[in-house]
Amino acid sequence: MTTSNTNVPGPKPIPVLGNLLEMGANPLRFFETCARTYGPVVKLELEKGRDTYLLSRPEHVQFVLTNTQKLFVKGYQRDRILSLVLGNGLVTSEGSFWLRQRRLSQPAFHQHRIEGYAAVMSAYAQRMLAGWRKDEVRDVHADMMRCTMEIVGKTLFDVDLYDPGEGSNEVAESMDRVFREYVKQYASVVRRLLETVPFPLPLPGNARLKRSVEKLDRIVYGIIERRREENRDRGDLLSMLLQARDDDGTGMTGEQLRDEAMTLFLAGHETTANVLSWTLYALARHPAAGEVLAAELDRVLEGREPAFADIPRLPYTQAVIKESMRLYPPVWFISREPVEDVSIDGYRLPAGCEVALSQWVMHRHPDHFADPQSFRPDRWSPSFEKSLPAYVYFPFGAGPRVCIGSGFAMTEATLLLASIAQTYRFEPADGREAVLEPSITLRPRYGIRLRAIRRR
Ligand code: HEM
């Protein structure tokens, strides 16, 4: 028999605000505490008229993610900010429209394409390091954001974002402005409350974001137009998207290309920057792991610049990245909406509710990870990976909507970390811990200041 959903355990809501204030104070701790206190299915009131259910069994993750498209939708269209910035691109679209776009975009992420992008990744890492001075304190998050943005600019648009000769600083600046405005609004709990108002409010933040997006749109449409006229494969993602044809021979419209380009730019640069920033932060606090990493890099690379072919020979480098994404998952929760009532562990979750799965909660679960709060890259042995139940560790999601850029991201993170850690080791610049900001991604709120000590 299915239990009524009113019986689902959860923290007591207060009038009007539900559980929003508790969550707003520290969403990560709130989700973790709820899962530990109330069990694998927790009911939360985070939106007016729509309950949220936090699920934390691996079977729940499997059920929800593999049935997205059939029993669940992403429901992002109700999110005004994401819709304004990303339009109807791969992250936000649904159903048959999404499927077509995914099929058209997939070839841009084939292994041989990524191999081509790898050379750009390594070269841009070297260019970044050339600007670092011996033993100085740096905000490594700012460095990683800039470097991954340059890499996306080059691999996506074939534009060198920071080469003043190309006159393309405008793209970088506009992207940056949109991004900052978007993060500022996204992290706000007040925004979640205002989302319940059924029309866009004339708030200054909304107007600023809209103006920035309009400016960026003009630039992106300009690039697309010029590239259409040029009609040649430059080896970048945009070339692939421009060439992509459906079975009936139709390609993407200008608007679809704009939405996909914007989506890939945003989805593809901050996530990887976060992984690298948190990795350097963890290494600075765990010098022994840093030494094992440096020894692997010295042994395998013998001082050379890392290349795509080196990646399989860098297992510890990859373990460091996996462990960093376990503790600091760049996407810390995934949300879905059931299209019909579904039954989970005997509870009925109604159509239209929000179902939340949290990498933060699952990746730190003591049932699955020994000493779960500690940074221990050596846990990622082949036997451990084999024994880890499926759908416990899912930094890139799973099912049909799994990250299309996971191969791109792992290649980029490995090559950048190898380049950086080959030349530098890190020490905390002061005794302060970095502040986690669980916005749409898990970012360091005030950056990450580390002393970069030159090794070679
Ligand atoms: C470490 C870096 C990254 C992480 C942790 C990450 C994580 C994720 C996750 C969890 C999802 C699924 C979201 C959901 O199911 O609701 C996703 C989707 C997506 N990611 Fe990534 N991502 C990363 C890098 C990238 C890169 C480099 C790109 C592109 C260049 C990219 C493009 C996308 C796109 C387009 C989607 C939507 C796919 C679809 O629905 O068909 N991501 N990513």
Automatic annotation (TrEMBL):
User: Which CDD domains does the record match to this protein?
Assistant: CYP132-like
Positions with a binding annotation for heme: 403
| Top-level lineage group | Bacteria
| The entry's keywords | Heme, Iron, Metal-binding, Monooxygenase, Oxidoreductase
Per its Swiss-Prot or TrEMBL entry, what cofactor is needed?
heme
Q: Name residues in a coiled coil.
A: none
In the record, what terms sit under GO molecular function?
Answer: heme binding; iron ion binding; monooxygenase activity; oxidoreductase activity, acting on paired donors, with incorporation or reduction of molecular oxygen
What Pfam families is this protein classified in? p450
Q: Which family does it belong to?
A: Belongs to the cytochrome P450 family.
Report the PANTHER family cross-referenced here: BIFUNCTIONAL ALBAFLAVENONE MONOOXYGENASE_TERPENE SYNTHASE, CYTOCHROME P450 FAMILY 4
What protein am I looking at? Cytochrome P450
Q: Species name for this entry?
A: Paenibacillus flagellatus
Traced from the root, the source organism's taxonomic lineage reads: Bacteria, Bacillati, Bacillota, Bacilli, Bacillales
